[in-house]
Amino acid sequence: MAFRLLRRAGIFLLTAWVASIVVFALLAILPGNVAQTMLGVQATPQAVAALEQQLGLDRPVPIRYLDWLSGMLHGDLGTSYVTGQPIAPEVFDHLQVSLILVIAAMIVAICVALPVGVYAAYRQRRWDGTLVSALSQLAVAVPGFLAGLLLVILFSVTLGWLPASGWSAPIEGIGPFLSHLLLPALSLGLIQGAILSRYVRSAVLEITREDFMRTARSKGMRPLRALVRHGLRNAMIPVLTVTGIELAALFVGAIVIETVFVVPGIGSLLIRSVQNRDLIEVQGIVMVIVVIVLVINLVVDLLYAVIDPRLRSSR
After folding, report:
1. What positions does the domain ABC transmembrane type-1 occupy (predicted)?
2. How would CATH label the architecture of 88-311?
3. Burial 149-164 (b: 16+ CB within 10 A, else e)
4. Residues paired with 79 in a beta bridge
5. Paired residues of 86 in beta bridges
């Protein structure tokens, strides 16, 4: 287990380093001039050159990358080209909002996927199981932003139960916080839950064909009880992999949902930075998202050993 942990940590660090090179290189080769964009088309070449020197854009690319990497290792994502303020505090403030939204959406997705997937598998040859499976397949085709708009029309415009947009921090009261969180979390979580339920159904169907499940049923155990007692833990191994992928995908989907519901998360900050052509802030935001995705994959990989005892080997 210790060797597995060290090996995965080494792969994590190597992947994060390679990702930092890719992120920096892709943004460095983008066409256009940041200083020219900030000063406008009427700016003189001398003014553009002076601003480039002030921002450090006249230095060689490798030197700029090493400075940026060194700053990140110390928690410094650089200084915004537009506001002149440190990037890290603003990024982490918006990241807190996105994490709350993504975690809430993941809870919704799991609460939907597990019962729907198990029920669709348990009732696979009956009309209700087929109906549940068909509805989940239909929900997969619905875009997240469309689900958000439909929920706004139903719960905000028609019924008037929930606010259509905005955000309220938990310190401002649990009631306003939950009312502003519910619709964005449902918009993200319901679609991902439908996707995840398909994998739960496939995993459960595969487990029910195993010898140990047939042995449990031959001893008089009911199929559903045998599935809950012996099958679900084994079925969760492939589902766990997909859950990690879904959790990473939620960060990408949150960018659109935050725009629809005017949520001040890291996605809305990224869009604003792109519009302002604040490349140093875009680099920092993208790198933070990449590290979060890598951490999710690392945690999922380590959880395999917790769920599957066969992986707890000393080698």
Report:
1. 95-304
2. Orthogonal Bundle (1.10)
3. eebbeebeeeeeebbb
4. 86
5. 79
Q: How many Å apart are CA 77 and CA 198, to the nearest integer?
A: 40
Q: Let me know if 86 is exposed, middle or buried by CB neighbors in 10 A (0-12, 13-18, 19+).
A: middle
Give the single-character DSSP code of 166: -
Q: Could you tell me if 262 and 166 are in contact, meaning their C-beta atoms sit under 8 angstroms apart?
A: yes
Of 269, 271, 273, 266, the closest CA to residue 291 belongs to 266
Tokens of 251: 């960060």
Angstrom distances, CA of residue 222 to CA of 31, 116, 153, 183, 218:
65, 19, 44, 39, 9
pTM exceeds cut of 0.85: no
Say which amino acid occupies 138: L
CA distance 84 to 286: 19
Task: Supply 29's token pair.
Answer: 């080769």
Helix 174-208 vs helix 127-140: crossing angle, to nearest 10? 120
> How many angstroms separate the CA atoms of 136 and 138, rounded?
5
45-80: per-residue pLDDT in tens? 777 777 667 666 777 778 888 888 888 888 888 777
Q: Output Rg (C-alpha) for the chain, integer angstroms.
A: 24
Pairwise CA distance, residues 257 & 102, whole Å: 11
Per residue in 71-109, pLDDT tens?
888 888 877 777 778 888 888 888 888 888 888 988 888
**Eight-class DSSP state of 79:** B
